[in-house]
């Protein structure tokens, strides 16, 4: 699992009715984009995460327009 600052970390709910927890990666603490990551969640809470199998990284979109 690799990530960069600005990517989204999604922790999927593990029981019925539990919502996914989504945060933005604000610091990559491992080497070459590897965990652990410092993550800021939607409620403003920050924490250090070493993602498990119930987690996915959604990479930020990169502008592909010419000249940018």
From TrEMBL:
<dbReference type="Pfam" id="PF08940">
    <property type="entry name" value="DUF1918"/>
</dbReference>
<protein>
    <submittedName>
        <fullName>DUF1918 domain-containing protein</fullName>
    </submittedName>
</protein>
<feature type="region of interest" description="Disordered">
    <location>
        <begin position="46"/>
        <end position="68"/>
    </location>
</feature>
<feature type="domain" description="DUF1918">
    <location>
        <begin position="1"/>
        <end position="57"/>
    </location>
</feature>
<feature type="compositionally biased region" description="Basic and acidic residues">
    <location>
        <begin position="55"/>
        <end position="68"/>
    </location>
</feature>
<dbReference type="InterPro" id="IPR015035">
    <property type="entry name" value="DUF1918"/>
</dbReference>
